[in-house]
Every structure is written in structure tokens, then in C-alpha cells.
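S.,

Sequence below, as promised.
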Amino acid sequence: MPFVNAAHARGITTLTLDSPHNRNALSNALMTTLIDALHTAGQDPSVRVVVLDHTGPVFCSGADLTETAAAASTGDMPANLLGSLLGAVATCPKPVIAAVRGPARAGGLGLIAAADLAVCAEAATFAFSEVRIGVIPSLISATVLPRLSPRAAAELYLTGDVFDGTRAAAIGLVNVAVGPEKIDTVVKSWCGSLVRGAPQALAATKQLLRQRPTLADLDDLAVLSLEFFGSAEGREGVAAFREKRDPAWIPAT
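The prediction came back faster than expected:
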């Protein structure tokens, strides 16, 4: 069983969760495979954007509870890898898009929040179901809480209630909720925009978004700005703008 399928075309790598027999649960095998695939995509200069997709009706059902129960005596639980997976998504130097066509629960929501951009089906359902099985949304808080409004986070974390894609967009878990037939159109539009960005500039911009600099960081930010204006990408981008042409980093169609 492949657990994650990888496909590459025109600068876009699509990593498809492919474990439908357990609703794409976060098993050790799936997470290990996905971490390796993200690392490979991140190091490949031909990859400009990573898309996380899924087979089957469910995006991700959270931790593999069958595997978790079996591993309780050994301590080798799937949750041990979840932090590494969320970090691999969030720190991937390439922009990551989550295409959520169906339900997600618990750790699956952490995976969605770790992506830079996310689109979901309006009818998809979501829940922070941890408290209902006696655990807490600990690791996923690192990616989820920066996305959600505090009131929404308190309500949904504490109640474990199910909410739909429209509300997921309203509270910031995803960027947009659309009809299922429009998800591919949204992903294609984002990919088309993202490949126009310079690779190193996109990677550094992702770091800025994670770090959330303040006025106290202005001196360091000025140095960083000058560094990029003087970089090869910066010089090429300015030249392309002045010459009214595409910069060299845009993939050929």
C-alpha cells in the first residue's frame, strides 16, 4: 500500500493521501511516507508548489486509533510523529496547498492548518474531537491556533462539535469553501499565481509569516530586505519588470 502517491507536472507536486481503508488516518506509515515526500519536494528545484490531496471521501480522520491502541504498551504511538509531520508541512520551503474534498477530524485539522493555503468543500465537516475521547488537541495547536479566532477556538476545542466548510472558512481554518466541483479550479488558480513568485523569495516569505515580526525587528528586517533586493532573484525580478517580460523562474507551459 503506497499510503501517499506523488505526481509532478509543470512545477506542481501533488501528494495524495491514499489510505482510504482507514479514512486516511495518521498512521506511522502514512506520516513517515508523507514527511519523506515533503522533504523530497522541498529539496527539488523543479518543484514550485506542493498540493496535498486525498483519495476516498475523507481527507483525514486524525490519529490512527487502532494503531494507537495496539501501541499503547510500547509507547510507539502515531502521535509521536505528528509534530514532525506538522513541522514538515509548515516549514517546507515550497508553498503548500491543502485540497480538502471531504471530512477531517482532530490531527487532520492540524495538517490543514499547517498548509499555507487551503480550500475545502462547503459540505465537508470538521471537528476537534480530542476531548470526546479523553485527549487534548496539543500538537495541532501549534498550527491551528494562529489560524482561528480565539472565541471560535475555545468553542470548537472545548465542545468537540462538528462544523461545516462554510464555517471553517469563516473562522480561518481554510481560505475558502466552495462547491466540490470548484476545488480544482481554486487550486489551479493558486498554483498559477504561486509559480510566478521567486523560489527563494517565497521560502523567505513563509518564514516571515511564521515569525510574525514586530516593530522591534525593523533593523533586522531592513537588512533582510536589502539582501533580497541585491540577490540574483531580486535583480532578475526588477529587470523582468522593467523589460516587461516574465522572470526566468516561471516554469515553461
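Residues 3-194 form a domain with the 2-enoyl-CoA Hydratase; Chain A, domain 1 fold (CATH 3.90.226.10).

Coffee later?
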